[in-house]
Amino acid sequence: MKETKTGYRAVTKYLIGSPFKIRPVADLIRRRPYPEAVSILENMPQKGARLIGKTVKSAASNALTGNKKLDEDMLYVKEVYVDEGPRLKRVWFRGRGRADMQLKRMCHITVVVDETKKVSLEKPAVKKPSKKAAK
Fold first, then answer.
1. Is residue 78 part of a domain?
2. What's 83's domain CATH number?
3. Which residues contact 108 (CB under 8 A, 6 or more apart)?
4. In degrees rounded to 5, what are phi and psi of residue 75?
5. Structural element, H or E, at residue 52
6. Which candidate, 71, 66, 81, 69, places its Cα nearest to that of 112?
7. What is the pLDDT along the chain (135 residues), one digit of tens a residue?
8. Distance of CA 81 to CAs 27, 45, 54, 69, 75, Å?
């Protein structure tokens, strides 16, 4: 369990996938409730959605097994980072005896989930204007 000051965190490293292709998927779920984020990721065809989904579920399980009694409905995705990892360099043989370098990019995904703030449905008490302000 990784608890930080800002919430519960999960990190997945060395995933083969370009961070440039995975970041747009991460932008869709940032600052969304956890159940909504999971449903969005499960219905997307991109490979990045599957990779981010595993990390989001891991962060949520870190939060649910923590000291506090939390429910899935109380969580939201606070932060999602997709950082660049190392690159695998492979030789790509071409015609006429030439060769190119093929780069297989990797990424690191970090997800932070936190509990939503409880919003009170009661209206705040209205202050009566003072006599000095009325003059």
1. yes
2. 3.90.470.10
3. 11, 12, 13, 14, 15, 81, 82, 83, 84, 85
4. -100, 150
5. helix 47-64
6. 81
7. 566 667 899 999 999 999 999 999 999 999 999 999 999 999 999 999 999 999 999 999 999 997 677 889 999 999 999 999 999 999 999 999 999 999 999 999 999 999 987 654 455 566 666 666 555
8. 9, 20, 14, 26, 18
pTM for this prediction:
0.80
Instruction: Name residues whose C-beta falls within 8 Å of residue 42's C-beta, 6 or more positions apart in sequence.
Output: 49, 53
Residue found under tokens 């932060």: 79
Six token digits for residue 33: 């409730």
Look up residue 18 and give its amino acid. S
Cα separation, 42 vs 19, in Å, equals 19
Residue 102 lies in a domain: yes
Rounded CA gap, 114 and 5, in Å? 10
- Number of folded domains that form the chain: 1
Element (H, E) at 50: helix 47-64
Identity of residue 8: Y
> Looking at the domain assignment, is residue 123 inside a domain?
no
In a domain, 122, yes or no: no
